[in-house]
Write a structure and sequence with these properties.
463 residues, mainly alpha, 2 domains, two-stranded antiparallel sheet, binds protoporphyrin IX containing FE
Amino acid sequence: MEFVRSSPAPTCCLSAREQLNQATAYIDASVMYGCEENVTRPLREMKGGRMKMLELEDGRSLLPVSEDPNDGCNREEQEKDGRYCFATGDARANENLHLTSMHLIWLRQHNLLAKKLSQLNPHWDDEIIFQETRRIIGAQMQHITYNEFLPILLGAKLMKKLDLSPLKSGYWKKYNSSVVPNIANNFAAASFRFAHSIIPGLMKLLAGRNATPEFVQMHKMLFNPFELYQKGRLDETLRGAMGTSIQASDPYFTDELKSHMFEDSVERMKQPKLCGLDLVSLNIQRGRDHGLPGYVFWRERCGFKKPTRFDDLESFMERDVLYNIRAIYRDVEDIDLYTGALSEIPLQGSILGPTLTCLISDQFVRLKYGDRFWYETDQNPAAFSPEQLRQIRKSSLANIICDNSDDLDVIQPKVMEQLGENNKYVNCSEIDRPNLSAWKDKLSTVQMFDDKTDVRVLNLIVG
Ligand code: HEM
């Protein structure tokens, strides 16, 4: 299987090969806007603070298109029908249909907020509306990540211990300038890729709450964002995703990603004899490409006793899993981080084993404590007013999906959790959402000199 090494980071002298992150570490919505001005600009409409969207004749709006025939996604047969892949702030947005759908609803959310802000403040120009909208979007993403996603990964107890949960009220004042927020090499090249193991082989599409589900092989939805042109597909995709349980986080993966990944993508269609790629092998090889130390090193780094023999792994790995590991690796020191960490039995009340919990929580601690623009900060100029912060804390993925899907009208309030007694379908109108009136400028009039010129002073409402 072809494997392309990550580019080496430029260094001034001879030393170990390092990699350079192409994206920002912070959770700042740069996936939508890009990390550089030359990416952001072409995505902006430069009017009303809005982002560009593709407006369809039936009134729906989609992500703007990328007409580049060599972007690894566009296909001739789709181009004939005027369908192109999409352009966003992150080059990977077309990679799978769920990801593209999330990009779409968040872009719609941007334009929805921009519209509301401009109605509240007709004197704001494009730049102010854009920047303020972007600030709110970044804050909503941080809030949803730490309020809805992380508790599922790390468990409520650890969230509390590490002070990762968003506050219910007031400002969070633990920003620490000595905390390095960079993405750790182990996080990108191994730990956070744990999620490849929880992806199901079949993707569910649900036309309605009680409709019979339709299933599509996962690999058919990779680099196939064209589905979103079809009326109803966005809602079917979202409903299907919300109604699908994840697979266990373990060393077993669907064949869709082990044998068929990108089987239908453009490059492969040009050379139809090539088979699909194996994501698990790529992950393991990526760890080696980046020079990650082995699994036992990370266990020790996390404060656990370092295993020195295979037998030492018996207490935290299932017997069959350990059997496979013994068959593959000659020495316990050789076990790759990805293999070893995914092989650990999950901690109680969590989906991850101890080493993954340690490495992933370390990253999210640093992304919060080391972010001077963290949305709950009280430090100017980043700070939201107490009332604005109170409104942002009402954000939920359910609210974002309800407001930006095509026709979805019922939803489970905790989108990332299964439907159940404590998570029943409710009408979208019952879902709480931020009220933007806290962003209305209080315009006070100041008389300048003695020439009777009124100057309007922008003064965001505080309180
Ligand atoms: C169908 C869904 C997905 C597919 C097809 C997919 C595929 C890929 C591929 C091809 C790579 C690059 C592999 C390499 O050559 O090193 C990658 C990297 C990665 N994936 Fe996924 N992935 C999916 C879902 C996810 C999810 C749900 C997560 C986490 C929540 C995730 C986390 C990552 C991370 C952290 C990287 C490394 C990114 C970087 O270093 O910039 N992936 N994925």
